[in-house]
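We treat protein structure as text, and this decision shapes the records that our systems exchange. The tokens are whole numbers drawn from a learned vocabulary of local backbone shapes. One such record is reproduced below, unchanged from the form in which we store it:
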Amino acid sequence: MKKLLISSLVFLVCFISIRGQVYIGSAYYPEHVDSKQVEKDACLMKEACFNVARMGDFAWHSMEPEDGKFTFEWLDHAVQILSQYGIQSLLCTPTAAIPKWMHDAHPEIMIMGADGKRKPYGRRRHACLNNEDYRQYSLRIVHKLAERYKNNKSIIGFQIDNELATEEPYCYCPECLKKFQTWLKQKYHTIGNLNRAWGTIFWSETLNNFEQAWLPRKMDNPSAYLDYQQFYSDIALGFFRMQREAIKAVAPNMKVTTNIGGSGFVTTMDLYKLSDTSDVLSFDNYPVNVTLEHLYGNDTGHPFDPAMTSFAMQIIRGGKSRPIWVPEAQIGRTALTQKEIVKEGYPRLWNHQQLAYGCRLSVFFPFRSFESGHEHLMAGVIESDNIKRSKFRELQQTAQELQEIYIQTGEMLPVAKAAVIRDFQVDWAFENGYTFCPDLKYLREVYKYYHALRSQSVMTDVISSQANLTDYDLIVVPYLAMASPDFCKRLEAATQKGSTVILTCVSGIRNAQLHKADALVTTDLQQLAGIEVEGQEALFGRKSNILTYEQQTGCCQFWFDQIRLKTASKLASFSGNYFKGMPAITCNEYGKGKVYYVATVPEQSIVDKLITEAVYSSSIVPLARCKHPLVEISELEDTSGKQYIYVVNFSDEEQTIELSTYASDIKTEKEYTTSASVKAMDYLLMQINKQ
């Protein structure tokens, strides 16, 4: 029996080494405790079935208590002790919060607001990314970390900074002004090109040279502010690359990532560009307390919807077939305003949902609730009294389940036949108060279409307008205000080959510099939709119009195109006070495909109805369906080509899943033909059986 057990363990170790592993653990702060507590904590982590700890994200003073004096011994000890208990380490560069000695020596390090005042010391993310002293200090500490741990087999990688480009990152200091002027010279080459791009003839803003360029504020010239947003995205990306290159120069095989804040709904940095230089795509997942509504100042709470969490994961992925990491995973109350209670069992299911979207690392934040400081209200895996309670047991169960699944399946990644276009340039343009309609919130409206697709159990990528479109049967293009000629050609080619396309109003009304298109909507898109847009009106958000779609009526707001049909047919009409009888939704046959055009911003029920028709038109047949809004169904494929259906039931009742294929439970091998059931607050992972 003993020999059999040893043989089984040897096989398991070899199996994991071949297939890799999934990392489950917690954010840990050894600098907060003494060395004896570190070993006690490592023992608890092992008991919880954790195999990774993330450390160092805010420990700059503990690493460098004085300028040039480095004290890494406490971190050495933590890495060593954790390793002895089978726990590897993800180390962070500590650059998100500078020590006080640095501020006192260089007060000009602090970000300057648009009002000309420096941020006071006392928070995080308060240093200017362009300040040369800050950059040199950052490079030095990063180099020291990389040199010290480059050969340590217990280190799985480095997380750079913490939630980069969040918390009002824009700076208006003299150094940023110089860098912006240089950036403009490199982009435009001549001041004449800049003046034309910004349309400076308006309001007498014409510049005589690049040295006259200013740092635009929100509500300034929209083309100028768009350039400033692009500039600061480039600066944040450059700060990431600077640290990454410093690590790679010393430890070229070390994985490098950075954790995107705001639950993935960050708009201040182009995440598509970040993915090109990041070894792993990562984001912090707080599905209850941080949603996309944070972008628009909604602090009243948002009921948990699994579609919003998957939306965030698909934004981070950007259509790429790559695993993701979650360096911070919510487990309970947070340091922010408590808008919703985290239901017991949700953290376990969130992690199953993450695995269903290709997550290879999940770090619960934090391991122990903090005794004091900014985030002392955060719930931990254990509370500060070190007593194991229900959260500990839930996360222990979670770690066991995820590791068992990964041992059996290996890496699984989502597979989608539908895509929604989300563009950061457009996001930035909408952010500036009066660029378009100030009440039309771009990402919220993009999410409506994504949500409608997930309600149909249709796997959906979220991609940029530069992405490849050829692999998608259904392509949704919501409010893509700046549609390039190249995008229009690629969209036309996809439609010619048979893709179903949904276009909405506002798409294609401006070029990349926010200048007018060749028509009210660029001619390429009008021809694709088989319409002519003869007029456009915007309406204050508290007012609305009505449209009728077959037998269904619904509210529509914000923007209204007046359409003349050419080759398209009318599916819905305006039926309220404005534009009565005019087309609100149209459909056009184009090549082997079909193009829908939505001339306004409809409520969710109308979007749902349109998506239902478009999915049917596209011939997409989901492998599994469930109508309950708290059931998340994902379709995945492993590296060997095996396909899976991953069902996560966040509801309090058992749910029935309709199947369009034969499948079997990977745990019990129970076979399903037309339907399967998943228990309340539980998951079901099925492998598709080829018949």
Summary: The two ends are 39 Å apart (CA to CA). The longest helix spans residues 222-250.
